[in-house]
Amino acid sequence: MEELRLLTEKLIERETLENKGQLYDFIALEKGYFFNTRFKDGVLVYMSRWSPNTESLIALADHLNLSYTHDYEEPGMMIYGRDIYKCGDLREVMLNDSDFDLYKFNPENELYEFEGQRYYDEDSIIQILLQRKIAVFELLAGEGS
């Protein structure tokens, strides 16, 4: 983790100097940049563009011999999920179209309706759906151990 912190400090310095997203020096990709990178309570926090930068994270984890859990969201693209990477194995949990079909916006009252409840915005519903999917994934993963 100390090596990750040191590498990330260098990445943040370059990002600040150049005012643009960065890749770690050893990542040879043309995409998957890290933006607004920082550590918050010991967790690497950053932004990426348009979709999760899974390939960059795998390259980082492999370089440092680390496992990780990556929670991500890109609301504009309706991308919400969690990746778990351990010993070269990537497990992905992601909401899909059928999940988003489980709730509806009612234009008459301007509320979202889900399982008989009404919500002012869809964020709470999305978090409920994602947490349920993660729980099922973890249950099934536990059975496979």
Low-confidence stretches: none
First-to-last CA distance: 27 Å
Largest sheet: 3 strands, antiparallel
Mean pLDDT: 92
Number of helices: 4
Helical coverage, percent range: 25-40%
Percent of residues in beta strands: 25-35%
Query: How do the strands line up in the largest sheet?
Result: 3-4-5
The structural class is alpha+beta
Order of helices and strands: HEEHEEEHEEEH
The count of strands amounts to 8
Shape: globular
Rg: 18 Å
Write the layout of secondary structure elements.
Elements: H1 2-18, E1 35-40, E2 43-47, H2 54-64, E3 68-74, E4 79-86, E5 89-94, H3 97-100, E6 104-106, E7 111-114, E8 117-119, H4 123-144
Antiparallel strand pairs: 1-2, 3-4, 4-5, 6-7, 7-8
Produce a short descriptive summary.
It contains four helices and eight strands; from the N terminus they run H-E-E-H-E-E-E-H-E-E-E-H. With 145 residues, the protein is an alpha+beta fold.
